[in-house]
Batch of 3 targets.
Target 1
Amino acid sequence: MNSKIILTGDRPTGRLHLGHYVGSLRERVRLQDSGDYDKVYIMIADAQALTDNADNPEKVRRNILQVALDYLSVGLDPAKSTIFIQSTVSELCELSFYYMNLVTVSRLQRNPTVKTEIKMRNFEANIPVGFFTYPISQAADITAFDATTVPAGEDQEPMLEQAREIVRRFNHIYGPTLVEPEILLPSNNACLRLPGTDGKAKMSKSLGNCIYLSDSANEVSAKVKTMYTDPQHLRVSDPGNVEGNAVFTYLDAFSRPEHFAAFLPEYADLDELKAHYRRGGLGDVKVKKYLEAILQEELSPIRERRKEFEADIHGVYQMLKSGSEVAREKAADTLERVRHSMRIDYFTDSSWLNPEN
Ligand code: TRP
């Protein structure tokens, strides 16, 4: 029972972007390839996506394939990771049903991520119950797979805290059964929350400030050219701000010393480039060209792999189908354990028939 298991996932409400990439995807591939984990489960969270898209199921349905292609193209490998669709694992609903009794309404109301999301969606008094309770269902996602490790962005921290509380409460009442998970955040600060190309706090489809993993080279180029920098940095000779400057935040997330040797050999590293920008005498165009070169280098193999998988949609379908079967078997085992601990496995253990027990 000391195995190390990863579970994480994404809502299929749109194609995945650079924010997802540096916040979680890149790390997942590294962990998958590290050999340090006994199992890796990657979930397309369609049921969670429906909690605030009940009236637009087509959007969720259409994006399942997009997210699967995003996964495969960044290098998640079905031979090493089980990729599956959440709603095919109906055991997750049953787990959620029992976990709901272990969480209070006021505890859910205090969840900071849920609070922000309610504001963002203008739900106010019209919060769907399913949406309000999705942290509970997310605890089911995690515990169904005995996950020890959940690589995710900072915004998922309250979800993990909630899951840990449910695990502790369950184990306290019914005896040791569930595994307490931990979040694994990106170590680089710039990766915790990559800003949008417009400099706003977060990449978000509704703000139109995303660079998608599936964007063409021309789209990436155009988006980098119009990126937000320092609005006070008007002439090349002006001193510029690096803080709050999206181009530099992206460089913090992507630039490595070898990129300088390859694309901008006048500078040894990012610190030198920043110092020059701060002093004045370094134009935005030059910095953006450097960022673009790095992004194209990172994204072009992803784009190429995507093309290969797009040419084999049937293979993608088969991969999701068998991944979902594997996931379902694991969740069914956990559910059996849960029912046993709760002593509601009536037809396995018939001791309830005897009034003495
Ligand atoms: N809430 C996650 C997101 O919005 C998606 C998700 C659903 C998830 N279930 C999960 C992430 C379990 C990690 C673990 O991106």
Note: The mean pLDDT is 95.
Target 2
Amino acid sequence: MEKSNVTDYFATNVFNDEVMKNALPKEVYRSLKKTVEEGAPLDGSIASAVANAMKDWAVGKGATHYTHWFQPLTNLTAEKHDSFLEPCGGKAIMRFTGKELIVGEPDASSFPSDGMRKTCAARGYTAWDPTSFAFVKEGTLCIPTVFVSYTGETLDKKAPLLKSMAALDKAARRLLKLFGIDCKKVETTVGPEQEYFLIDEEVFFRRKDLVLTGRTLVGAAPPRGQEMDDHYFGALKTRISAYMRDLDETLWAYGVCAKSEHNEVAPAQHELAPVFTTANIASDANQLTMELMKKTARKHHLVCLLHEKPFNGVNGSGKHNNWSLTTDTGVNLLDPGDSPEKDARFMLLLACILAAVDKYQGILRASVASAGNDCRLGADEAPPAIVSVYLGDQLGAIVDSIVLGREYVPKKAVPGSIGVPSSPIFPIDATDRNRTSPFAFTGNKFEFRMVGSSASVADANIVLNTIAADAFSDAADALTGAENFEDACKNYTYALLKRHYRIVFNYNGYGPDWEEEAKNRGLLNLKTTADAVPEFFRRENIEVFTRQGVFTEKELVARADIALEYYAKAVKIEARTLVSMMRQEVCPAVANYIAALCTAVAAKRAVSDKIACRCDVSLAEKLSSMQEELSSAVDALEAELSGKEEKLAAAQKAARTVIPRMAAVRELCDGLERLCPSDVWPFPSYTDILYSVK
Ligand code: ADP
Ligand code: MG
């Protein structure tokens, strides 16, 4: 296809509103639209007509199969393809019924359910989510669906996300009504900025750790890392820009509005930002984006690494989750306008969000916990594992004035110039940026920066929506029927800000004093998944989900158990990979090198080259003793891998014993790498990998 005009092929793979309008009978279209826009229950009688139209459209796009596309409790999407074909009088016809569209029953008993589905009673259902468009991918009609058990428990990430959006909608509308605003819907909007690494496939396949775990488990620091800051926003290499172009075009055809991309801080690191949209659609789109990023990379003989910390010592990858609230009339509720201090509604919403983040900091942290993200959170470039909120100069000063009684002097966006003759005059923002905050107010949205690059954004947004909904509900309860609404609202807002002020931190979150200061403030610092996930077991945290109708206790506990189990498994796989790399690759290579040195010593002795001889002997001795230490460290690591513990105990052991032992192995191995010639080393070095794309 000639891809000269984006608007011609944008969303051509999507059964979107425009296609539906043309393809469906008027009544059917109207009924479906009502479901999508107002959340009205889907009218079962229209399903056949929709299914038929969808099938005809998909077949026209070359599809032969359909699948219910769902998001089990891994970070991936799942598909089971069924053909449209049906035998008919010795021939075959293409058929797709309403029932097949609405509900599927994949035999998917191997997906994690933590016992909510026993293998002997393993029925699970996928049910159509009409609020997210179906699309054709590689010859298959993909129908976004939720995934539930026979007994109705949710087994996926989409169902609770939709429930959390509904909870937020309900609570926000109740609150807005008190201000005389009667809107039909409040939607959560999300724009996830996706970071990733691109490396050449040739180096990738020569490293077992990259192939099996997605990150390097060993590797001495390269002579040149990111210290010159010359990669950030640097000019794109030809291969990279060809990849980005291809990826953009692919995503655009799926209606994913990829908007900007650039080089990130670390060598080989990049970022892709989409235009924000409704949380559910943003989450689906991000899942699809991650899949297509990986597939497109392979077409270019590259590998896309979505791991949060593929390389020690250089920046990790996150997914900045930009989050806001918008009414169906198009008002961004987190837009502070010109004088936020005078806007009672904005200030109340802000206070509620601060209160929610403070009260539920534990589950917000837990929502992003994973083995991969643990390598990133708390490392120097990433937000620390402590949750805090950055408000910026303007809102920070307003909140300070309320809580500390300081005078607030409004600082307006002023016209500015960069002082270069003929450069345009432009408004200078009232607020600067703070890249170190895990939860930063950035103009008219919050940016939750703790999300890991490989994670589904659903998890974080489920928590954000739920806790915000709860804070809004509390406010609505407290203010409904107030005699003097204006005063009551002001008092309530001020009280919340005072009570939860400790969560506000407008300074350097990477600074050395912050951990101590946060501790004094009583903020949590949950460094590992084993510390964070148990937050889901706390009574008050369980109750916020049950109260808002997002999870039952059973569902939540099952999810937390699965997260712990996954964490322990991921760490174990890494440890086993490390052991095998040491035993099968590093130790033999070093032993060979020592043998070669000894042979050289003998040869040099024969010609009485004493100095060279001494150097070789001392190097061989040094290597031998380090090699011995390495072997013992590998044995010590391996000794920890055989036990069978309960989920929490296994996760704690992974965090407290296995990971430190892996670090000990790594240190010794990296030391050996520094002493060995590159042709001796059994796999590509950091320099080979990070600069593999020429
Ligand atoms: P910034 O440079 O401040 O991070 P951008 O405008 O570049 O802001 O946006 C970064 C990301 O935030 C993009 O993915 C964008 O779509 C998203 N975003 C912008 N506005 C909103 C909003 N109201 N709700 C959710 N996401 C948003
Ligand atoms: Mg950003």
Note: The chain has 23 helices and 20 strands.
Target 3
Amino acid sequence: MMKKTVLVSGGAGYIGSHVSVELLSAGYDVVVADNFSNCDLTCFEGVRKITGRDDLPLVKMDFCDAAAVRKLFSDYPIDAVIHFAAFKAVGESVEQPLKYYKNNLDSFLNVQESAQAHSAKVLFSSSATVYGEPDKMPVTEESPRKPATSPYGNTKQICEDILRDTIFASKGAVQGIALRYFNPIGAHPSALIGELPRGVPNNLVPYITQTAIGKRECLSIFGNDYPTPDGTCLRDYIDIVDLAKAHVFAVRRMLEARMEADYEIFNIGTGRPVSVLELVQAFERVNGLKLNYRFAPRREGDVPAIWADPSRANTVLGWRAERTIEETLAAAWAWEKHLAGI
Ligand code: UD1
């Protein structure tokens, strides 16, 4: 059988690079395309090293450039596209909404148009942020989407709607999947790829590892008066390699024509809530170190608790999270040390 080709937009970034590794290991041809607006070549080179694929194609381009996207789809025989190319800083999106709407929507519309023209399947990287502050836990794919609390979150909802409406209008000619990620953390066990935040990290785990290595003085735990067992927020932390593997299951399902509906949604999480404090303590225990942290006021916009019901992904997709939080936090620390040259 002919090898299938998967385009990974934003493929040089944190999630995209891990997904590229798993797709290549599963036997797919991969085309990585990225404008390098929020990453450098580190992870792309890491993917080449891990997979031994020095010939892995890299296209430097901006997905907001419709002509460039059209050219990409005529240059390569793309069977499926996984769309990651987007801005992702929640706070920045509140300050600069137009930047977020323009970039995240234009790029997805361009991908969607070309995918439709070439009958390519579409996998959209969505987020648990679309659930807002849920009424019932854990959240299933049927849980209502709440009004987004940031322009970033809104772009995730709008892109899901663009995908759904395009598929519906095509009467089966177009198919796609949205994966709603919970909190992706960790790094590849090789420590050759991982998260590379620019400036001060917004997310918890990069802040922890940078504090542990001495780049930041002290971790602030935002809020210890939430209505949760230890007062800190609960999240569903999903290992980045597990998360990446979910994409292989989803791509296979689309390309092997096994979808039950033309548009499908899956939660990608572990189903296990972990508090911020528990995560910090697990990091200390696994890596045998003490972290400098203090309790600070709540961060605006944070929901007290959210975790997934991943049973649809488990049963329908055949995927489940396998790595333990200890393995994940050890990998995150190994990656930070790799970056520091230790
Ligand atoms: C955020 C986004 C989510 C996005 C995800 C990407 C929202 C509301 N959240 O999730 O859409 O997909 O990032 O990774 O849109 N924390 C601290 N100290 C810190 C940093 C974080 O205590 O220095 C706490 C937060 O209060 C939160 C938890 O750690 O309770 C996780 O925070 P974070 O990693 O930023 O992820 P989310 O806000 O859950």
Note: The pocket of uridine-diphosphate-N-acetylglucosamine is lined by residues 90, 127, 129, 150, 153, 183-184, 202-204, 207, 219-222, 233, 235, 276, 299, 301-302 (CB under 6 Å).
